[in-house]
């Protein structure tokens, strides 16, 4: 079973009063997108309003995201990946819209800019900073895969998405008819639009002589090295377009065991000992 933690929230016991929601003004001075997410078919979502803004920091080309439950009396809000240079801008927007900023969150330890979370906390001390435990950095709250970050009646789920950095996580809006649809995933640098974050911070940052022992091999190889893979890996030596094309054209079949293996492996293989393993040897 998936381990779910819900972070304790100061606002969790307050009820939702949709009629008190107030439409924030759209300020054209910001590079923003406002989305009062609609779920026409969802009765559960009907009385809820997510405010969403995409903000931009030009020197590092970083997006910061502001989310708030504006149907909630306190309008609790959070910022994902704020930048120090634009912290004042973000806080002005929060104030202008009458929001209560409760969390300043990072997807990972950024290498190209200084996070705005520290600065924001000095200006609004009640704000709690959040980052993954796997990032090995400091914050008020260290989250792990499966945790939920609640703001008003909305929440973000945490998914581990290492690769660019070890502690990279993706924050996904909640699943369920009372949560915004379509769901939104804040991927940090793990997945970029038509690209992905660089991987040389991880495996390819190891010494070239490091031995590589993979989980699978389909051609009879047993071991390689970082240097060898940097030079000869037929996928990772290509440019982005070619890499995408190769991956899109792999056409691998649906793994035979996936429906049994995944649920079972989520509980270390001990899902239900009365169920006999399926014989797939003839497939
Ligand atoms: N020129 C920038 C750094 C650009 C860069 O390396 N971006 C990273 C994400 S920030 S560490 C990345 O993963 N890029 C992937 C890509 O496809 O560009 C600077 O010096 O700050």
How would you sum up this structure in a few lines?
The chain has 283 residues and is of the alpha/beta class. The chain is 14% helix and 23% strand.
Structural account:
The chain has 283 residues and is an alpha/beta fold. 29% of the residues are buried. Strand 2 and strand 3 form a beta hairpin. The chain has five helices and 15 strands. The protein is 14% helix and 23% strand. A six-stranded mixed sheet has the order 2-3-4-5-6-7, with helices on one face. The protein has a five-stranded mixed sheet with strand order 1-8-9-10-11, with no helix packed on it. The longest helix is centred in the first third of the chain and has 10 residues. The protein has three domains: 188 residues, 4-Layer Sandwich (Metallo-beta-lactamase, Chain A), CATH 3.60.15.10; 44 residues, no CATH class; 31 residues, no CATH class. It binds ligand L3IBWBLD. The ligand N[C@@H](CCC(=O)N[C@@H](CSS)C(=O)NCC(=O)O)C(=O)O binds next to loops.
Annotation keywords:
alpha/beta, Metallo-beta-lactamase, Chain A, six-stranded mixed β-sheet, 5 helices, disordered N terminus, binds the ligand N[C@@H](CCC(=O)N[C@@H](CSS)C(=O)NCC(=O)O)C(=O)O
pLDDT below 50 for ≥5 consecutive residues: which ranges?
1-6, 8-41
* Whole-number tally of structural domains: 3
What's the helix-strand series?
Answer: EEEEHEHEEEEEEEEEEHHH
- In CATH terms, what is the fold-level topology of the largest domain? Metallo-beta-lactamase, Chain A
**Main sheet: strands, sense, barrel:** 6 strands, mixed
Bound molecules: the ligand N[C@@H](CCC(=O)N[C@@H](CSS)C(=O)NCC(=O)O)C(=O)O
Name given to the CATH architecture of the largest domain: 4-Layer Sandwich
Strand arrangement within the widest β-sheet reads: 2-3-4-5-6-7
Protein structure class: alpha/beta
The share of residues in helices is 10-25%
Return the CATH class of the largest domain: Alpha Beta
What's the shape?
A: globular
CATH superfamily of the largest domain: Ribonuclease Z/Hydroxyacylglutathione hydrolase-like
Oligomeric status:
single chain
DSSP summary, beta strand count = 15
User: Termini, distance in Å?
Assistant: 29 Å
The rounded Rg comes to 22 Å
Q: Count helical runs.
A: 5
């Amino acid at each position: 079973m998936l381990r779910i933690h819900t972070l304790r929230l100061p606002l969790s016991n307050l009820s939702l009063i949709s009629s008190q929601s107030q439409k924030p003004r759209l300020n054209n001075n910001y590079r923003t997108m406002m989305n009062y997410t609609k779920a026409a078919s969802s009765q559960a979502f009907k009385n809820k309003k997510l405010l969403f803004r995409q903000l931009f920091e030009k020197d590092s080309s970083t997006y910061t995201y502001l989310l708030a439950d504006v149907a909630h009396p306190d309008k609790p809000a959070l910022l994902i990946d704020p930048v120090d240079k634009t912290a004042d801008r973000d806080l002005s927007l929060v104030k202008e819209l009458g929001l209560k900023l409760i969390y300043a969150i990072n997807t990972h330890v950024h290498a190209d800019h200084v996070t705005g979370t520290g600065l924001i906390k000095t200006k609004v001390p009640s704000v709690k900073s959040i980052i993954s435990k796997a990032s090995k950095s400091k914050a008020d709250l260290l989250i792990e895969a499966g945790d939920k970050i609640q703001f008003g009646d909305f929440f973000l789920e945490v998914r581990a998405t290492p690769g660019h950095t070890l502690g990279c996580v993706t924050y996904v809006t909640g699943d369920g008819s009372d949560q915004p649809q379509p769901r939104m995933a804040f991927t940090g640098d793990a997945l970029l639009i038509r690209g992905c974050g660089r991987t040389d911070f991880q495996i390819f940052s190891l010494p070239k002589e490091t031995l590589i022992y993979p989980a699978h091999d389909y051609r009879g190889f047993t071991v390689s090295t970082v240097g060898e893979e940097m030079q000869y890996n037929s996928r990772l030596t290509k440019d982005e377009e070619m890499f995408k094309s190769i991956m899109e054209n792999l056409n691998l079949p649906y793994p035979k065991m996936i429906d049994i293996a995944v649920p079972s492996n989520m509980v270390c293989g001990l899902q239900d000992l009365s169920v006999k393993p399926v014989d797939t040897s003839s497939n």
